[in-house]
Amino acid sequence: MALEWLYSLESIDWEELSQLYLVAPLGHKDPSDLKVTFSNSMFKCFVYDSGRLIAAGRALADGRDCSYICDVAVHPDYQGIGLGKQVVTKLVTFSKEHKKIILYAAIGKEPFYRKLGFKRMATAMAIFKNQAQALENGYLIDES
Question: Residues of the chain with pLDDT > 70: what percent?
Answer without folding.
Answer: 99
